[in-house]
Specification:
Structural class: alpha+beta
Shape: elongated
Oligomer: single chain
Number of helices: 3
């Protein structure tokens, strides 16, 4: 039976691409995992061909797994280069998003001013319509005006008629012998 030795650490090799991006792998050989190293995390290297600083070409067929390593002289398909450019653009875009996560006061004030201008535009567009609607409402009110006679009341007045019948009070202890507490209360009141 073998025991696992948890104290062994995996040593990762680091290399740089020709654009300066740092990548790591256990070994730069076929079927090894490869990652882009950022400040916070490691990201699996996207599919494509990548040129290392030493001139060798790293081919990734499945995301995060090295398919093969070639010398720089063996250029097979230059059509794979756009994939590399897209991958580096994605990495750069991710880095820019992290850097630009906060807005400055100037940017916020410019955005607020822009929104205020848009609101004023909308109000200007709405004001003629509001005037038209107000005129239509006034016309409708004039049409609906009906003369009301003051001779007849609109409804009969409401009169209050309280119940005159007394409510029967129930005394549960009429025939029961009183206990000490009830005798004290009877004497008091």
């Amino acid at each position: 039976m073998e025991l696992l030795n948890l104290q062994d650490e995996i040593k990762l090799e680091s290399m740089k691409l020709d654009n300066g991006t740092v990548i790591e792998a256990e070994a730069f050989e076929a079927n090894q995992e490869v990652f882009i190293v950022t400040e916070d995390e490691r990201i699996a290297l996207p599919v494509g061909e990548y040129t290392l600083e030493d001139g060798r070409i790293l081919v990734v067929a499945e995301e995060g797994v090295i398919a093969e390593m070639r010398d720089g002289g063996e250029e097979e398909a230059p059509a794979e280069e756009p994939a590399q450019e897209e991958a580096t653009e994605e990495v750069e875009a991710n880095e820019e998003e992290k850097e630009m996560s906060y807005a400055t006061k100037e940017e916020l004030s410019a955005a607020v001013e822009e929104m205020k201008a848009m609101i004023e535009e909308i109000k200007a567009m709405m004001s003629p319509k509001e005037e038209e609607m107000a005129e239509e409402v006034k016309e409708e009110v004039k049409e609906e005006e009906v003369e009301m006679s003051t001779d007849e009341p609109a409804a009969k007045p409401i009169k209050h008629s309280p119940d005159t019948k007394p409510v029967d009070m129930h005394q549960f202890s009429k025939g029961a012998k009183g206990d000490t507490l009830s005798r004290i209360f009877n004497k008091l009141g």
